[in-house]
Amino acid sequence: MSLKCIVMDMKAKSVQDLLLYLMMIKQSFCHFGTNSFTQLLLESSEIACKSQTEVNIGGKVATYFTEIYEQLKAEGIITCVINLIKIYTDYKLWITGHSLGGALASLAAAEIASSGLINAQNIKLLTLGQPRTGNWVWAAAMDQILPYYNYRVVNHRDVIVHLPMRFFEGYHHYNTEIWYNNGMDGNEDGEEDTFIVCNDMDEDDDNCSNSLWQ
């Protein structure tokens, strides 16, 4: 498994952004990423068979996620980011990930934000299809430590974002959900994609994606 830190100089657009894309070149799809229903079952069983782990910002996170995150740290990803932050002091930091990568991105963003090395206003967390990662206390802590730019993009009926079930160990999403309720097929119809912004901690909001999974 290898990791990459990518710096993008966007001065031509009058914006200086540091883009961190946590990219794992996978040795085994069974362990990293959710690319099939079989992998989804494997990940779900891993989460179900392991307890949650307490984290520094407060609350608990699925041990399955923290174990993989510690593997990333061992590869030097956080050290890499911290070194870049010290060099590019006026840059913004974008952290993103898809599915399992979204959970890992949220853990990385929380650790970097709590380090105090970069203003939280300069951290941009954007995940795609992120599963529920921790309990309600952790979700509330995420909202507190990353209050400025913290979005979870959900595509229509994506089941992964509704796992693990909330009744299991009290799993809960943090804010803010961006729900594309048309399946992101607007371009095929000649229309723009529409989305709904859901920023209420109550996931039972009938206007959000959970309304399809009641």
Structure description:
By secondary structure, the protein is of the alpha/beta class. The strands form 3 sheets. The protein has a 6-stranded mixed sheet, with helices on one face. The protein has a two-stranded antiparallel ribbon with strand order 2-3. Strands 6-8 form a two-stranded antiparallel sheet. It is globular, with a radius of gyration of 17 Å.
CATH fold-level assignment: Rossmann fold
Order of helices and strands: EHEEHHEHEEHEEEE
Low-confidence stretches: 9-34
Number of domains: 1
CATH class, please? Answer: Alpha Beta
Radius of gyration: 17 Å
Q: Can you count the beta strands?
A: 10
Question: Strands of the largest sheet, in order across it?
Answer: 1-4-5-7-9-10
Share in β-strands? 15-25%
The biggest sheet, with number of strands, parallel, antiparallel or mixed sense and barrel status, is: 6 strands, mixed
> Structural class, from secondary structure content?
alpha/beta
Q: What's the architecture in CATH terms?
A: 3-Layer(aba) Sandwich
Shape assignment: globular
Mean pLDDT: 78
Helix content: 25-40%
**In CATH, what is the homologous superfamily?**
Alpha/Beta hydrolase fold, catalytic domain
Q: With helices defined by DSSP (H or I, 4 residues minimum), what is the helix count?
A: 5
* Oligomer state of the chains in this structure: single chain
Distance between the termini: 38 Å
InterPro entries: AB_hydrolase_fold (IPR029058), Fungal_lipase-type (IPR002921)
Protein name: Fungal lipase-type domain-containing protein
Organism: Meloidogyne enterolobii
Domain Fungal lipase-type: 33-166
